[in-house]
Amino acid sequence: MNELDQKINTHFPGLVVRKDLVKTVKGNAIVPSYVLEYLLGQYCATSDEPTIQTGIETVKEILAKHYVHRNEAGLVRSNIKEKGRYKVIDKISVDLNDKKDVYQAQFSNLGLKEVLVDSGTVKKHPKLLVGGVWCIADLEYEFTENKSASPWILSTLKPIQLSHFDFDGYVEARKQFTTDEWIDLLVQSIGFNPEMFGKRSKLTQLVRLIPFCERNYNLIELGPKGTGKSHIYSEFSPHGILISGGEVTVPKLFVNNSSGKIGLVGYWDCVAFDEFAGKQKRVDKALVDIMKNYMANKSFSRGVETLGAEASMVFVGNTQHTVPYMLKHSDLFCELPDKFYDSAFLDRIHYYIPGWEIDIIRGEMFSSGYGFVVDYLAEILRSLRNHDYSDRYKEHFSLSSDISTRDRDGINKTFSGLMKILFPQGGATKEEVEELLRFAIEGRKRVKDQLMRIDSTYGNVRFTYQDTDGRAKPVTTLEEEEYPGYYHKTIAEGEDGEILEAAQPDSPHSPSEPLAPAEPVLKEKHLTFQENQKGLSFDTLLGPYLKGATAITVTDPYIRLFYQVRNFMEFLETVVKHKAPDEEVSVHLVTTEDEFKGEQQKDNFEKMKESAGSVGVNFTWEFDGTGTIHARHIVTDHGWKISLDRGLDIFQHYEMNDAFTFANRLQQYRPCKAFEVTFIKHKREAEGE
């Protein structure tokens, strides 16, 4: 166990579980994670290895004995008949049979339909009436001569959810963790390994939790397939329900006019629509209209009366195109069905998660560390719905006056949700508050910027905020930084806009003249890059400054692990690309020796030396014996010093073993870490001393 895992076990004894155990016990049972973690929480919520092992065996035994597989339903039914009574784990839903005036349960895997339930059980667990609940139930079989009576009786039922928890204890324990430790604990609780994610990516994952802790929060996430968009809504909390986009109707979601029964929004904290994107989807116009009203006013009407509910709405869907393609040809909502591609509907969305920034899920991204038993975290988030943290930034910052009420609501709700998740105890520093506020503004700005493309009646909004000195600080979205040419183009400009973009107005050449490639003028400069930014490579960033050098010295203490050595190899490739074939370049590396794998490190360097020698690069290296080098920079013999605060380690984790992914082959397709680089004229060399 690492330090964080020990700390987690110390402060949350009995409430955390090792996340890789879920896979161990799941086998071929088609149950949500919170059901398995509920059982693991009963038997394995400890760091004691022998107890964990016996706990795993117990949970496996319980699942083998009591979880009903559909193909074994007949055998289980026979068991119940022979024994008279038997415990099962299944998803149970209940209906009122008004002809017989009784409640009847339906067991989804067991395939039983008319099981008698007493009304006390239904009053106690009203969610049984909508969508169904996973439960541990005792079933009895009593044969009767009466043909119309069902022999099956539900004697006891226990929903698989925590029965109680201590909120004050949770807040107290939170105080023992730093902000970064807490974020890592939450990321592990969702099931991911925090080391595989940068800060921005972790926050993006945590935004997915806001619908569980913030009432009436409307969230959309569109992105490529396989990034785990719907996972949290189906597996994570017993208070959320995931429905396929095509399956939803007005009676199911809001209210059934004939029976007067309220739909899903009345019982669940979070209703998520899966597969929401797709131009071809058929959508009921009436549903869109009721949803618009509900998302804006938290209410919907049926006939004469108006009903209110507090369910948050989440829409997740896949995109077919890259971000620059969408920005060039339409907008970031272009995949939605026509009826939902409606500015009034989209304006009610509080946050747009940029799904294209999230990595496609790979095996190495799952955590084997400790995290909360998910139904414990689900209960915490649920209890936080009663709090409001949306004004916590107001002592330090204020939003610009031209941000509309609806934009303000979106920003406030997102900020409140993130504060609840990260700082339930309060005590966030001004810098931490600012980071969350910027993040909240960015997600709402992404919605608004696209709305301005769709509907020209929306006025231009400057998304800025002021600190107490009154200085305005603008916020941009990451794709705005990456593709400024496409981002600020309204679609109305159409073809002309694109043609104008293609021809540079300040070019002295007429379009028919071939352009001679001009030598770029190299200047001293300082560049800052955001986390998850793409489109960068050593060639574009460093190449022009390395061209013409005959000796280059790289100082970077961290060229030790395989991926770091591979980065250095890619740096050598850049040197080779920018040198003339008839020239030789010396590259000298100053780094530190890896205390565990020093031999492997030397072996890698030897291979690189041999390989580089054959293409005119003389590669040498030395290990710094003092262990004091912290600076990371590149110095050339023709007058440049390039200072990199992260050295060459500027890319996020990517799949190194897969030769068929572009992130592996081409650096510009890898998301970056946040880093800064400074190009400085190196005086001594420049003066030829």
From TrEMBL:
Residue ranges occupied by any BREX system Lon protease-like BrxL N-terminal domain in the UniProt entry = 11-141
- BP GO terms, sorted: proteolysis
Entry GO MF terms: peptidase activity
The record's CDD domains line, in alphabetical order, gives:
MIT_C
Question: In the UniProt record, does the keyword Lyase occur?
Answer: no
* Chain ranges passing through the membrane: none
The protein's name: ATP-dependent Lon protease
Q: Which organism is it from?
A: Acidithiobacillus ferrooxidans (Thiobacillus ferrooxidans)
